[in-house]
Amino acid sequence: MSKSHLNDLPELGYYILSLKHSPGYAGQALWWGPNDRGYVEDLNKAGLYTKAQIEEQPGYYNDGTDTLAILESVAMNESRSVRYAPHRNLDWWQERMGKDKT
User: Which residues span the domain enclosing 85?
Assistant: First the structure.
């Protein structure tokens, strides 16, 4: 994900989707836990991260390969019905975030 996408992020909370760890974990998306600690399946137990945190370390929190910062409202609305599918997940989330795939 290019750094230019960060300019478009609203000042709200974000959940971090672990693209790196989700594929091999029984088909379930894994979210980062609070304070960069561990992974959780339940979004209610996931950590909520700020735009400032993501902007300070985009390669860590939102690189588009291993991690993807998902707007809180998008994650809450979409995660209940979504199972991880490696062949479409990144594109699927980016479409819901209103981002292009470059």
Answer: 3-97
